[in-house]
């Protein structure tokens, strides 16, 4: 009886230890920048009230967004932008049902440095397809610049009437965006620990079954 109890305790410890032995991996799931993000030559996409911009991205597995770097800038005097994530169910965004969002106030265009960085907390997403969307405040006048001059550019913009359309000009690159996510990845030793724990549990179960039969 005592041996059986000790086996179960040891098995539980190994299982818990195996589950805890994980590392956090960082992955870039969207990157439309060149290597140099300090000098962008791409097309400036207008970003004003009612004229939104959306860029599609994919997640192969559940993850949390660690950072979002964009080339969103302000050309007017003031104002901000809501930057967030919605589910992607088709070729164009639908209603803006935010899964996560935050309000940012981009810097003005005083140089060719167009980097608005967001480091959100708690932006967890399941595997799937998403849109990264920028929505300007009333009175905001700015742009989400393409990171390169290369096309085509499979992203979406909304007109002043609120109708979304795909930008497919061969002369317009995608808006500059870099999304970095983190996800828990089991270490190789984890699988061995979990296997050992499973074997101990199975052995204890067999011993218990034999005792009951005897």
Automatic annotation (TrEMBL):
Residues forming coiled coils: none
Superkingdom, taxonomy of origin: Bacteria
Ion transport is among the record's keywords: no
Signal peptide: 1-25
Keywords: Signal
Keyword Signal among record annotations: yes
One matching Pfam family: PEP-CTERM
InterPro entries recorded: Ice-binding_C (IPR013424)
Ranges for domain Ice-binding protein C-terminal: 184-207
Identification of the protein by name: PEP-CTERM sorting domain-containing protein
Organism: Pelomonas margarita
Lineage: Bacteria, Pseudomonadati, Pseudomonadota, Betaproteobacteria, Burkholderiales
């Amino acid at each position: 009886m005592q041996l059986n109890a000790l086996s179960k305790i040891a098995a539980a410890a190994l299982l818990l230890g195996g589950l805890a032995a994980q590392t956090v991996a960082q992955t870039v799931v969207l990157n439309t920048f060149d290597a140099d993000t300090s000098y962008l030559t791409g097309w400036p996409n207008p970003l004003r009230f009612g004229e939104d911009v959306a860029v599609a991205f994919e997640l192969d597995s559940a993850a949390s967004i660690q950072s979002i770097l964009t080339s969103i800038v302000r050309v007017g005097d003031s104002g901000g932008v809501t930057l967030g994530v919605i589910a992607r169910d088709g070729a164009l965004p639908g209603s803006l049902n935010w899964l996560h969002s935050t309000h940012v106030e981009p810097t003005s265009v005083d140089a060719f440095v167009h980097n608005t960085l967001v480091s959100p907390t708690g932006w967890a997403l399941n595997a799937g397809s998403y849109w990264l969307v920028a929505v300007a405040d009333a009175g905001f006048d700015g742009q989400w610049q393409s990171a390169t001059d290369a096309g085509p550019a499979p992203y979406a913009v909304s007109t002043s009437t609120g109708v979304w359309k795909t930008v497919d000009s061969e002369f317009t690159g995608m808006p500059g965006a870099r999304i970095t996510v983190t996800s828990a990845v089991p270490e190789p030793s984890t699988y061995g620990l979990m296997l050992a724990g499973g074997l101990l549990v199975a052995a204890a179960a067999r011993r218990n079954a034999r005792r009951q039969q005897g």
